[in-house]
Amino acid sequence: MPAFNEAPGIGGAIEVIAAILRECGATYEIIVVDDGSHDGTFEKVKAVSRRYSTVRGICLSRNFGKESAILAGLQAARGEAIITIDADLQHPPELIPEMIRRWRAGARVIHAVKRDRSGDGLWTRARAALVNKALTWFGGIDMHNASDFKLLDRVAVDAVVFDLRERHRFYRGLAQWVGYEQETILFDVAARESGAGKWSFLALFNLGVTAIVSFTTAPLRIVTVLGMTTLCFAAAVAADTLWSVYQRHAVSGFATLEITILLMGSFIMISLGIVGEYIAKIYEESKARPSFLESARCGFETKKPFREDAVIATEQTFKQLV
Ligand code: UDP
Ligand code: MG
C-alpha cells in the first residue's frame, strides 16, 4: 500500500484489509510504504505493526511519488502473489477474495478496472481519460479506466522488479506489458474515506508524460509526419508563389505568409518539446539514480512473516531480506 499523508485513515484501512485476508484463509503480510508523509503516517504504521506481526512499514526518505512507493513495496514483498492497493480504501478490498480465487485458478496478473468513476470529480475524470486515451492510441496498451489495484503472481513481480530495469516506471503499463495469463475485474471507485486526493496538477502531468514517454515512441513519429505534411504544404505555397511571379502579379498573400510562419513556428516548438521529453528521459535513465531511498523500516524483524507453510515457499527471498 503506497501511502502519502494518510495518517487519519491508514489504521482503519489496514484493519479492513487484514480482516478480509484472514477470511480468505491466506497467509499474508501487509506492507505500507510511507512515501515521505509529514503527518505521522509512519508512526501510525509502526504502532499497528507492533500489534500485528503481519504488518510492516517502509519509510521513504522523502516523497518520491506513488510509482516509486509501489516499487518499494514490490521489492520488499515476499509473497507468492502480491496485491497493490491504495491506502485510502478507494480500491474496494472486498475484491481481494475474488482476485485470490482467480489467482488460485491460474491467472497470473489480475487488473481491477474502474467500472464507474462517479466517485471522482469531473476534472479528475477528464484528465484520466485524456492520458489513458493517449496511451491506448500511442502505446497499444489498454489503459481504459485502469487502476493500480492489481494482483501479480511472483513471476510477474520478479519480471517487473528485476527484469525491467527502467527507473521511471509506469506500473499500470508494465503490469500489462509483462504478459502471462491476464484477467480483469470491474470495480466501482468508492469515495475517499478520509483526507484528500494527493495529486497536484503537475504530479499528474508528470505521470502522464512518463506514462507516454516510457511506453511508446509514437509521438516522435508524429513529429516526422507533421514535418512531411508541412513540407507538402510548403511545396504548394511555393508553387503558387512562383506561379504569381511568372504571371507578373503583384506579391499578395501577406496573411498566408503570416499564418505559415506562425504555424511552422508552433510545429517546430512542439516537435522540439516532444524530442526534448525523450532526451530528458534518456538523461534521467542514464544517471541511473535509484527510484527511491528508504529511511526506516518496521515490522520486518519478525522472523515468521507468514504461517509456517508459506515461509517454506518463500525461504529464498525471506533469507535475503532478514
Ligand atoms: N500516494 C503516494 N505518493 C504520492 C501520492 C499518492 O504514495 O505522491 C498514494 C496515496 O497515499 C494513495 C494512493 O497513492 O494511497 C492514491 O493517491 P490518491 O488517493 O491521492 O489519488 P487518486 O485516488 O486520485 O488516484
Ligand atoms: Mg485515492
What can you see in these coordinates?
With 322 residues, the protein is of the alpha/beta class. 54% of the residues lie in helices and 14% in strands. It is built from twelve helices and eight strands. A four-stranded mixed beta sheet has the order 1-2-3-8, sandwiched between helices. It has a four-stranded mixed beta sheet with strand order 4-6-5-7. β1 (2-3), α1 (7-23) and β2 (30-34) form a beta-alpha-beta unit. The protein starts with a strand and ends with a helix. Magnesium ion (MG) binds next to loops.
**Share of helix, binned:** 40-55%
Element pattern in H and E:
EHEHEHEHEHEHHEHHHEHH
Bound molecule kinds, no repeats: uridine-5'-diphosphate, magnesium ion
Total strands: the figure is 8
